[in-house]
Amino acid sequence: MTVQCSQIDWSRGAEPQADAYDSTIVLSLAAAQGYHRPAVADAPVILDGAVALLPDRSFEHIGECTIAPFQHPSIALAESAIKCWPDGFRQCQTLLHSIAIYDYAPFGSDQIVGSICGAGSNGFGSIAVTVNNHIGLAEGIVHEMAHHKLRMLGVDFEDSIRLVKNDPTALYPSPIRYDCLRPMSAVLHAQYSYTYIAQLDIMVVRGGIDRRRDQVIVERSLAVILPKLEFGRRIIAAEAIADAAGNEFLPALLNWVDRIIAEGYWLLGRFDVPPRTFNHPLTPRKEVKRARTA
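Now predict its structure.
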């Protein structure tokens, strides 16, 4: 399927759609750039057989990172967790073709959350992620898939051809990066990838499969991420300069973020967990004041 950008309903591009509309659009845009889903015959698979587990050299530079065994127990647990979010699960099956799994010794055995993740070396649809903590593995999968998706929609980390048209030399505080200011395209990537993580967390907790695990997810993931999403939302709403596609995409994204924030804080209350205080060290003084009064 080939789709002209002028024909795309960008308001349905932000949040995973039950009818896979956004995944279809992303694959069409990828195909226009020459993407063909690679064959991975005889490789071990994940996500109900849709995605291959393939070795990748992406994390070789990280000390104490080694390729994990394909039979690692976190894999089945992570797959089960992503299934709690059916639309997200189907999107991972569609947009990813290979995952490289690593063991990172300092993480030890399964502490539920936490991972190192990044793009794989096999281009669009390939990722690398540590496998030690099963919710961390699940979060890393949707996180990196979101980056792939947003890049194909036209936004790279340092610049964009679509959605936002801020000057790439204009820099803003990111909800994820604290050592430097970032272009709006990078701010959007940070917000987008952590929106996916928060939605996954909510869906897992909503499933109510394991009360102890739910408590850990709320305490160590949602309580940390929600204030960052609020911060990123303010930056994007106040500073993003949208093109025609962005005028459809960004309101849909912010609406999704608002729903996540509302349900996330409800879950914090249900589990009696306070949100973690978040103050960006490079936030302009006017933004600090606005944050305190918002």
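Strands lie at 45-46, 51-53, 65-67, 98-104, 117-119, 126-130, 171-172, 182-183.
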